[in-house]
């Protein structure tokens, strides 16, 4: 059975500018993805899922980057697998 998913994402992020400093904090963003789930026995199913997570961006100002400003984007691509048992 194919499915789609999406919603709110929350995470602690940290970005480092090579040897000059870093920025970190909690970010709220969004996630979207989809997957397949297959029932292969009476109470068992297996799934494979892809998720894209976007937690926005932050800036590393002159104080953490040696006088330059950098924009850091926090994005992830996740692939998960699972095995489920229905009671």
Give a quick set of tags describing it:
87 residues, 78% strand, single chain, mainly beta, elongated
What would you say about this model in short?
0% of the residues lie in helices and 78% in strands. It has a 4-stranded antiparallel beta sheet, with no helix packed on it.
Would you give an account of this structure?
It is a single chain. It is built from no helices and four strands. It is elongated, with a radius of gyration of 19 Å. β1 and β2 (21-39) form a beta hairpin. It has one domain (2-85). The chain is mainly beta. The chain has a four-stranded antiparallel sheet, with no helix packed on it.
* Helix percent band: under 10%
Percent of residues in beta strands? over 45%
Count of separate structural domains = 1
Oligomeric composition of the shown chains:
single chain
Low-pLDDT stretches: none
Report the sheet with the most strands, covering strand number, pairing sense and barrel closure. Answer: 4 strands, antiparallel
Strand and helix map with partners:
Elements: E1 2-17, E2 21-39, E3 44-60, E4 70-85
Antiparallel strand pairs: 1-2, 2-3, 3-4
